């Protein structure tokens, strides 16, 4: 039999649970969500790279002004970007072009519109990575993406890409949400995103907690087999993700190579 005398007690319990839930919701509302947090914490590490690309091949020479997004990965001014976007040629495309060399490189940090002079210090065509260095030491350390704070993810896990729109849209930082759709070990370890990300290549990918998962790259086969070419092109458009551990390892080698060159000079 239902005892009506229990009703006030139950109402008090329900009301208490409601108030607790409401207080938690209010607290969460005051906290930045994961999109806001990554844009706020990591967004300043995105920089604009402006340069003139000198192209030779096919019996003619020409120059083209270009602008791409890079990632500040060191407080003293080392920038990581896509080797393809700065003039490198992956896989079979190396045999189809002449040469392309960037010059007059400038790094725009924050609201800077003039740019800081920089130089290309290393590149890895296989990984589709290139490293630039601001030539003048900064007065204060730059905000950067820490390559020691990385994460390993699996198929199905949510990831967030931090990209930038173009100059027309004020180079606004934008988050793209997606999931890891697959993984491959050939030609190397790569995460395959289930969706395309804003920003193209050289875009950092994070966990919702803000740990670096990797960087989007393009991978092309050396063979001209039509089926393989088609498959690689589809993956390249989506932006395959080079794991952060490989990015960190390659960056260490790039720094060592740059130091050796400085010593020789």
- At the first level of CATH, the class of the largest domain is Mainly Beta
Fraction of helical residues:
25-40%
Q: Between the first and last Cα atoms, what is the distance in angstroms?
A: 93 Å
- Secondary-structure element pattern, one letter each: HHEEEEEEEEEEEHEH
Let me know the CATH homologous superfamily of the largest domain: Trypsin-like serine proteases
Beta-strand residue fraction = 25-35%
Helix/strand/pairing category: alpha+beta
Number of domains: 2
Return residue spans where pLDDT drops below 50 for at least 5 consecutive residues.
11-30, 225-238
Q: Overall mean pLDDT score?
A: 82
How would you describe this protein?
The protein is an alpha+beta fold and 265 residues long. The chain folds into 2 domains: 43-134, Trypsin-like serine proteases (Thrombin, subunit H, Beta Barrel); 158-251, Trypsin-like serine proteases (Thrombin, subunit H). It has 4 helices and 12 strands; from the N terminus they run ααβββββββββββαβα. The protein has helices at residues 7-30, 34-42, 226-238, 244-264; strands at residues 46-57, 60-72, 78-82, 99-108, 116-124, 129-134, 158-164, 173-184, 190-193, 204-206, 212-217, 240-243. The strands form 2 sheets. A 6-stranded antiparallel beta barrel has the order 1-2-3-6-5-4. Strands 9-8-7-10-11-12 form a 6-stranded antiparallel sheet. A hairpin with a 4-residue loop joins β5 and β6 (129-134). The longest helix is centred in the N-terminal third of the chain and has 24 residues, at 7-30. Mean pLDDT is 82; it is low at 11-30 and 225-238.
